[in-house]
Design goal:
Protein name (chain D): Phosphate transport system permease protein
InterPro entries (chain D): MetI-like (IPR000515), MetI-like_sf (IPR035906), Phosphate_PstC (IPR011864), Phosphate_Transport_Permease (IPR051124)
Shape of chain B: globular
Strand content of chain B: 25-35%
Bound molecules: adenosine-5'-triphosphate, magnesium ion, phosphate ion
Chains: A mainly alpha (about 290), B alpha/beta (about 250), C alpha/beta (about 300), D mainly alpha (about 350)
CATH topology of one domain in chain B: Rossmann fold
Family (chain D): Belongs to the binding-protein-dependent transport system permease family. CysTW subfamily.
CATH superfamily of one domain in chain B: P-loop containing nucleotide triphosphate hydrolases
Largest sheet of chain C: 12 strands, mixed
Structural class of chain C: alpha/beta
Largest interface: A-D, 109 and 112 residues
CATH architecture of one domain in chain B: 3-Layer(aba) Sandwich
Radius of gyration of chain B: 18 Å
Oligomer: heteropentamer
Number of helices of chain B: 10
Largest sheet of chain B: 6 strands, mixed
Order of helices and strands of chain B: EEEHEEHEHHHHEHEHEEHH
Number of helices of chain C: 12
GO molecular function (chain D): phosphate transmembrane transporter activity
Order of helices and strands of chain C: HHHEHEHEHEEEHEHEHEEHEHHE
Main location (chain D): membrane
Helix content of chain C: 40-55%
CATH class of one domain in chain B: Alpha Beta
Chain lengths: ~290, ~250, ~300, ~350, ~250
């Protein structure tokens, strides 16, 4: 016929857009890779056994982040333990139980609002409400409660998105066989949505680990290790600065070596968390899909 | 009709403002195959779904009138829809296997209803797959994902899954529209078998199929049941002009 | 403004002259700090073993919060005090002077750190001002700067924006980057007050900690800033003011213009505090405590 | 033939579990409402008094920020403008780059490259923003200072900032939001049913046309999420930019040292007392109001288009084999039974 | 066969290790309807998709051999797949309307290929919808989402969408399996019309349909083409025993 398929037509807009895509991608990939490399190069020399296992001593003039590592762990765990069930539950309600209407719109709207509130506001609120009104002061629990509010929408949203991508036919299939709603959710939806839920949790962990403004006024900046077994319990009522807080403090004191050292530790930490969750979600997929 | 398994009286259904079912009165005979025919969009699927309350899941649906199963109103507040849907099973128009292994797909229903014994489940899975004429094709990969099957295989899997809970009534929404003739024939044979114990309702676009397998046929048009009768009567001596026109391909 | 200035200066003067009485050797601040650091380390461990039986009884916890410039002092104090009294936990937060005083007034911490004098309002709220040390404020530039000193007028001119180039202040032809602290900072308050340029400063950078100022000045050609004397190192160059170098002696002697007090505020007088807190203040007042204060580069009061 | 059970008889233990599940989920869902309600309440309680003490006009439209002066002045107009301008520019830079990168990862990149880059992006989404600030101080500021000295050579009026200016802050913010935007947009793109893609390609659409005319519109809801989160992160960031932006209160011009709403709170909250402290809470309140406004506008604006088309939800629902039926009225994906109409 | 629109030579296709098409040689006659029949999973859809290179999108696919369209090898490196797919249109087994309005669904293809005039687009949309026998049902809601249509309506919409780009070849993968007999008949009539200008290839499970509409029929079995001939020959005098067995329903 008129046009041979062997002659490629040139579509200028396609070429331009493709070029833009490649340019944008190379830019962001280079930037992001550059950030990681630069941080590693600058920070790796600060890292030593002492750096990882001791706490700072102004008498000996040494520096270490053991206390901050532990604090970070505490805050991540406590926050997730509280926020994950609430976030996932909320998503399940919104997606699977609620009839569309005012109520759902209100909840979705407020969840959106919550996700947009700047961390500094969470910090102020946490300081005033958990710290002063509830009398928890500067403590790990104050920080964790504050962060719970902060990461909640992240988990809710991701779970919701994941639930939305589960085909409707799975629901009707299961319900059509007489499965009750919660049973259907448990056996079909949650496994199918698990990768999405885990993405939400990854993002949440990332946010917690990376948070500074909301923690500065709530969890404080303590860096001591618990003195005894009981100390591990009472620690949640004591002030504790996460790695990021310590990084910020080092940075504002121009202790750049230490700051980059902590940055490296943070990168490795986030990497480990990501790998772990990947592994877990992979396992889930294998179990349910194959 | 005394041995009506399901009866509807003055059933009306609205999707918001769309009046999708209009004053449907119907008795569905026990241990028989009832076929629903009618042009696309006339409400066959909708009616089918009111029979096991799958329409409850659609937002903005309003249902008026009565549907009884063995004389009990299934829209009564006290009805346990779980039990209702165990008794009134369903096969959908589009194959919808769950994202799990073939075995787990079939075992899903029995597990819902409390069967835990591995041996018993194995038995049910095998029986059901055989019943749906797919056992031989999948017996070596029961532990593989059901999503890896072809469309036709998936649909037969779904039929097997519905059989696994041993329903009393089986609703099938164009169950063979994605199948090749051989599988279709097997399924049709299977329906014949099933009606000995069960009540079967099947929506079909294939007039030959309706004529071949069903004992009774109902003809739907824009939300109304124009005519319902013994199948041979519908095809040989339709009472309504519209039925005749449709069957002879004069409109649609 | 004038009234406050007088009070502050008077206070400082008194504190400085008292401080002169206590003897401190060494002209080079850094060397002195290093030396006494080692000394206090020994002292602490000795005392800990000697008085172990006597101190074992004391237990409890002390919480401090407040000024960031007092971080070095507070951490050193906490550490050595805990070494001496193993049963006691001392925690310190560095949220700023205002927050520290507020926290102590509200009773949520035992001690509020402030790198400035308390306001009349704060004192009226029942908070006691316990001056524990005196700190100098050094004016610094990037190491490559050719100016060696400024007059008081030049310094004021730079900070109020009248002088924009180093060539007008005895240096090379180079734009001046004016670095300072944020409103509310003890350091800034003292600096502006002493130069009598309150509310007239035009900062190009308002940074929120001493360290940040150090870093910015060190890295920016043409920059000028002011910081606590105890953080000075060779990444920056210190300038003399009216030809007086910012050294411990000059501050004690009163010839160096810029200094301010470090306050550890308590709710009510020290004597009204619990025995653990009292022990802390006793410790600070002891020779051991004085050595500690000097070891972090500060000037001992009284 | 009547079987053993009547359908009316429910099994109670099971019903109890089901009921409990529903109640628990409902409670969970209201948690967010409670949180927003109490945060709003606390911000109002702490932030409004100063508004009246100082005067609404003097705070919001005043340009002089001298909180500790003898006759203090609490004008935050420049601070507000800085936040608006800074956020707008960082979004204008970060979102297109991020979305295009997401397109690259989801559609254009070789599998192996994507497999390396994706985890890297996830990693960076978790990187503390302070690190970006750290890099800003170490790399951007000196660079900007060089640009500044070149641009304003010999200027008598320009106040030299040493490179700590609006541009530096905008760049740090833009880079900071990249991973978030990339991550979420990419997931949204991947969730688009592959049937849309094959349908479009089979019509002779090029890959680019398919992406921009079918995939991106279908992924719109996810991309909105990405933008909203990006705006939130940019406008809400404090620590990363306090040091990078110079933090003086100035009109937001590229080479001015500027202060954002957030950095205003962070840098002075520790030191402020009395009315000054209350005004800082007022700044918090303003920030909060901003977020509310932006969120509402963005979602309203973008969603209203959606409603007309009734497209997004059903689209993101159907997958692979099943096809959506959204029905006549606006049908929330939540309960539409698909795959069979 | 001199007027072969499409020819394949020694076409082999592998999904990873799964050898899905084996040495397929086939000529598809221009301006005729060719039907593919065969049991589920035998590779009909797969073969169809090699004809407009839709298989390129599947990971791990390996294709050997040659496919020519008007004598030009469509697997040549220089081929503009965009143009290829404009010329070789496709209707899928599952209806897949875009999540946009009915109008925009139809106008999508023409717009892609550069038609901007509103009047021209209106015309194309109307023509195409009429061609697919769905115009009357949707004419009042062209601006409404296509996802609101019933399955049957959606499939006809997809056919209309494929027609809108005026292809030379139209590949249809069980295009009527979701349609009622009336719509099916209309589509079949349409195919008759289309073949005057176009070359039509249709996969079907419905043997009657194949017999009714097609000029030539190819019988597939586990990836091989067992037999291809003029339709009347295939159904009246199949040369291969397996074809006969399949047509007479003896296996599947
Ligand atoms: N979930 C829904 N929401 C709104 N309207 C619907 C919904 N499902 C179906 N409809 C409408 O109700 C009418 C009947 O649809 P139904 O699916 O029952 O037809 P059908 O006879 O099964 O058609 P087909 O043969 O194409 O499957 C149609 O007009 C359809 O558009
Ligand atoms: N994307 C794919 N990846 C791997 N294997 C595939 C894929 N698509 C199809 N197959 C396999 O290739 C074989 C041929 O599949 P195809 O879909 O072409 O069959 P079909 O004849 O169209 O069947 P049906 O009539 O059920 O649609 C089957 O064994 C199928 O499992
Ligand atoms: Mg239907
Ligand atoms: Mg097929
Ligand atoms: O941190 P300062 O309060 O001492 O400036």
């Amino acid at each position: 016929m008129d046009q041979s398929i062997l002659v490629k037509r040139v579509r200028v807009s396609d070429i331009v857009i493709t070029a833009a895509i490649y340019a944008a991608a190379s830019l962001s990939i280079l930037l992001l890779a550059g950030i990681v490399c630069y941080t590693f190069v600058k920070g790796i020399s600060s890292i030593s056994w002492q750096f990882l296992t001791t706490v700072p001593s102004s008498l000996k003039g040494t520096f270490g982040i053991a206390g901050n590592l532990l604090n970070t762990l505490y805050i991540v765990v406590i926050t997730l333990v509280i926020a994950t069930p609430i976030g996932v539950g909320s998503a399940i309600y919104l997606n699977e139980y609620a009839k569309p209407g005012k109520v759902v719109r209100t909840i979705e709207f407020t969840t959106e609002i919550l996700s947009g509130i700047p961390s500094i506001i969470f910090g102020l609120f946490g300081m005033v409400f958990f710290g002063n009104t509830l009398g928890l002061g500067y403590s790990i629990i104050t920080g964790a409660l504050t962060l719970t509010l902060m990461v909640l929408p992240l988990i809710t949203r991701n779970t919701q998105e994941a639930l939305k991508t589960v085909p409707e036919s799975y629901r009707s299939g299961a319900l059509g066989m007489g499965a009750a709603r919660w049973y259907m959710i448990r056996t079909i939806l949650l496994p199918s949505a698990m990768p999405g839920i885990i993405t939400g949790i990854i993002l949440a962990v990332g946010r917690i680990v990376g948070e500074s403004a909301a923690l500065l006024f709530t969890a404080g900046s303590g860096f001591l290790l618990p003195k005894s077994g009981m100390g591990f319990l009472t620690k949640i009522l004591e002030s504790g600065g996460t790695l990021t807080i310590q990084l910020y403090l080092c940075m504002s004191k121009a202790q750049y070596g230490e700051a980059f050292g902590i940055a490296v530790v943070l990168l490795v930490l986030v990497l480990l968390i990501n790998m772990l969750t990947k592994y877990l979600s992979g396992k889930f997929n294998v179990e349910t899909r194959e | 009709m005394n041995n009506a398994k399901i009866s509807t009286k003055k059933l009306n259904l609205y999707y918001g403002a769309n009046h999708a079912l209009k004053d449907v009165d119907m008795d569905i005979t026990a241990n028989a195959i009832t076929a629903f025919i009618g042009p696309s969009g006339c409400g066959k699927s909708t009616f089918l779904k009111t029979l096991n309350r799958m329409n409850d899941l659609v937002d903005g649906v309003k249902i008026d009138g009565e549907v009884t199963l063995d004389g009990e109103n299934i829209y009564d507040e006290k009805v346990d829809t779980t039990l209702l849907r165990k008794k009134v099973g369903m096969v959908f128009q589009q194959p919808n296997p769950f994202p799990m292994s073939i075995y787990d797909n079939i075992a899903y229903g029995p597990r819902i209803h409390g069967i835990k014994s591995k041996a018993r489940l194995d038995e049910i899975v095998e029986e059901s797959l055989k019943g749906a004429a797919i056992f031989d094709e999948v017996k070596d990969r029961l532990k593989k994902s059901a999503l890896g099957l072809s469309g036709g295989q998936q649909q037969r899997l779904c039929i097997a899954r519905a059989l696994a809970v041993q329903p009393e009534v089986l609703l099938m929404d164009e169950p063979t529209s994605a199948l090749d003739p051989i599988s279709t024939l097997k399924i049709e044979d299977l329906m014949e078998d099933l009606k000995k114990k069960y009540t079967v309702v099947v929506v079909t676009h294939n007039m030959q199929q309706a004529a071949r397998v069903s004992d009774e046929t109902a003809f739907f048009l824009v939300g109304e049941v124009v005519e319902k009768d013994i199948t041979s009567n519908i095809f040989a001596r339709p009472k309504d002009k519209r039925t005749e026109d449709y069957i002879t391909g004069r409109f649609g | 403004g004038c009234g406050t200035t007088e009070t502050t200066t008077a206070d400082n003067g008194a504190a400085s002259s008292q401080a002169v009485a206590s003897e401190t050797a060494g002209t080079d601040t850094a060397a002195a700090a290093a030396g006494s650091e080692a000394a206090s380390g020994e002292t602490a461990s000795e005392t800990a073993s000697e008085a172990a039986s006597a101190n074992a009884g004391l237990s409890g916890s002390i919480s401090m919060a407040g000024s960031t410039s007092m971080e070095k002092l507070s951490n050193a104090l906490a550490e050595s005090f805990m070494a001496k009294y193993p049963g006691v936990t001392v925690t310190a937060e560095f949220t700023g002077s205002g927050a520290g005083v507020e926290a102590v007034a509200a009773g949520s911490v035992d001690i509020g750190n402030a790198s400035r004098n308390l306001t009349e309002e704060e004192k009226a709220g029942g908070v006691a001002e316990n001056i524990v040390a005196i700190d100098g404020i050094a004016v610094v530039t990037d190491p490559a700067n050719t100016a060696s000193g400024l007059t008081r007028e030049q310094l004021s001119g730079i900070y109020t924006g009248e002088i924009k180039n180093w060539k007008d202040a005895g240096g090379a032809d180079q734009a001046i980057v004016v670095v300072g602290r944020e409103a509310g900072s003890g350091t800034r308050g003292a600096f502006e007050e002493l130069l009598e340029i309150e509310d007239q400063c035009a900062y190009a950078n308002e940074l929120d900690s001493t360290g940040a100022v150090m870093a910015k000045v060190a890295a920016t050609p043409g920059a000028i800033g002011y910081v606590s004397l105890d953080v000075i190192d060779d990444t920056v160059k210190t300038l003399s003011i009216d030809e007086v170098e910012p050294t411990v002696e000059n501050i004690k002697g009163g010839s160096y213009l810029l200094s301010r007090p470090f306050v550890m505020a308590t709710k009510g007088e020290i004597s009204e505090q619990n025995e653990t807190v009292q022990a802390l203040f006793d410790y600070l007042a002891s020779d051991e405590g004085k050595a500690l204060i000097e070891s972090v580069g500060l000037i001992v009061t009284e | 033939m009547k079987m053993a059970f009547s359908i009316v008889r429910g099994r109670h233990s099971k019903n109890a579990v089901e009921k409990a599940a529903q109640i628990i989920f409902t409670v969970c869902a209201f948690f967010a409402v409670l949180a927003v309600f109490s945060i709003t309440l606390y911000m109002l309680i702490n932030g409004t008094p100063a508004l009246f003490k100082v005067g609404l006009k003097d705070i919001l439209f005043g340009t002089v920020w001298k909180p500790t002066a003898k006759e203090p002045s609490f004008g935050i107009l420049y601070i507000i403008l800085t936040s608006i301008v800074g956020t707008a520019f960082s979004i204008a830079i970060g979102v297109p780059i991020g979305v295009l990168t997401a397109v690259f990862l989801a559609e254009a990149a070789p599998k192996k490259l994507a497999a390396v880059v994706k985890p890297a992006v996830e990693l960076l989404a978790g990187v503390p923003s302070v690190i970006y600030g750290l890099l800003g101080i170490m790399i951007l500021n000196p660079l900007m200072y060089r640009v500044e000295t070149a641009v304003f050579k010999g200027s008598e009026t320009h106040q030299f900032t040493g490179g700590a200016n609006l541009i530096s802050a905008v760049i740090v913010l833009a880079i900071m939001i990249l991973p978030t935007v990339i991550n979420i947009s990419e997931s949204a793109l991947r969730a688009v049913p592959s049937q849309y893609k094959s349908a479009s390609l089979a019509l002779g659409a090029s890959k680019i046309q398919t992406i921009f005319r079918v995939m991106l519109p279908a992924a719109k809801s996810g991309i909105i999420t990405a933008v909203v989160l990006g705006v939130g992160r940019a406008i809400g960031e404090a620590m990363a930019i306090t040091l990078v932006s110079g933090s003086s209160v100035n009109f937001p011009l590229p080479f001015h040292s500027v202060r954002f709403l957030t950095t205003a709170i962070v840098s002075e909250m520790g030191y402020a007392s009395g009315l000054h402290r209350e005004v800082l809470f007022t700044i918090g309140l303003v920030l909060f109001a901003f977020i509310m406004l932006i969120n509402t506008c963005l979602t309203k604006l973008l969603k209203s288009k959606d409603t007309q088309e009734k497209v997004k939800e059903a689209g993101s629902r159907s997958e692979g084999k099943s096809c959506g039926t959204a029905g006549e009225k606006k049908n929330r994906a939540g309960a539409a039974v698909q795959g069979e109409a």
